[in-house]
Amino acid sequence: MQVVIIGSGNTATIVSQLLQANGFYISQVISRNIKHAEILANALNCSASDFSSPMDETADVYLIAVSDKVIHEVVNYIPKNNKLILHTAGSVSINVLENVTNQFGVLYPLQSLRKEIDAIPEIPFLVDGNNKEVIEMIMQIGKKISSHVAFANDNMRLKLHLSAVIVNNFTNHLYTMAADYCKKEQLEFDLLKPLIFETANRLKNSYPNQVQTGPAIRNDTTAIEQHENLLANYPELKALYIYFTKQISSFYR
């Protein structure tokens, strides 16, 4: 199956590598930045172009892997030849593609992707399409590149995207605030990494509420007061500490 990749960032890079490694032929990489397109195309041994050049119209699949906010712009460059057109966004409806082809859908990687990573992590893919036949076609593509493929319509995908923001982006910002606190207090943040990894590892076999620990769930008011006093000079972090402590205490009460 011949694929044109539209995009050259993190998602485009990782998904195209997965496709190529599993028997798909990548014929072209297209990006607004021709230099970025050439970098990815060289890695995939295919042609590169920007949107000022003709798009390969012989492909079977056109995969749009760009930022969510520009998908509606990119759609206008795709030939209206009724080939299978997919986007990879979690928060964009499949209907953004409906005026371009009669076969369209989504192949959304539910994972934080960075093109610089040494090894591609496990990536669940969420699939949707404009009819049952298209959904099955996309499912088969997904199953060739992942062992975790599931159907998710626009509403389901958006809710999972929201959940992903909470568990990934929000959590990482908490790590950032803790690392900043450690730096200012001349503490070694690396000492916390085994705890971070162990907490995440426990979720492999348990639901999150089954592994909750800490002073809030124990109602350890002495420790909580000590922590709040330590955060007197860090009002934003203190506000978060108080908020999460109340939330945890209330949830388990």
Quick synopsis:
With 253 residues, the chain is an alpha/beta fold.
Please give the order of strands in the largest beta sheet: 3-2-1-4-5-6-7-8
CATH topology group of the largest domain? Rossmann fold
Strand content: 5-15%
Biggest sheet features = 8 strands, mixed
Number of helices: 9
Count of DSSP E strands? Answer: 8
Specify the CATH class of the largest domain. Alpha Beta
Number of domains: 2
Which residues sit in consecutive blocks of at least 5 with pLDDT less than 50? none
Structural class computed from helices and strand pairing: alpha/beta
Element string (H = helix, E = strand) = EHEHEEHEEEHEHHHHH
| Terminal Cα span | 55 Å
Radius of gyration: 22 Å
Helicity range of the residues?
Answer: 40-55%
CATH 4th-level superfamily of the largest domain: NAD(P)-binding Rossmann-like Domain
Give the rounded overall mean pLDDT: 95
Spatial shape: elongated
Return the CATH architecture of the largest domain. 3-Layer(aba) Sandwich
What attributes characterize this protein structure?
Rossmann fold, alpha/beta, 253 residues, N-(1-d-carboxylethyl)-l-norvaline Dehydrogenase, domain 2, 9 helices, 45% helix, eight-stranded mixed β-sheet
Describe the fold and architecture:
The chain has 253 residues and is α/β, with parallel strands linked by helices. The protein has 2 domains: 2-151, Rossmann fold (3-Layer(aba) Sandwich); 158-252, ProC-like, C-terminal domain (N-(1-d-carboxylethyl)-l-norvaline Dehydrogenase, domain 2, Orthogonal Bundle), CATH 1.10.1040. It is built from 9 helices and 8 strands. The chain has helices at 10-21, 34-44, 71-74, 132-145, 154-184, 193-202, 215-218, 221-230, 235-252, and strands at residues 2-6, 25-30, 47-49, 61-64, 84-87, 104-109, 125-129, 149-151. An 8-stranded mixed beta sheet has the order 3-2-1-4-5-6-7-8, with helices on one face. The termini are far apart. The model has no long low-confidence stretch (mean pLDDT 95).
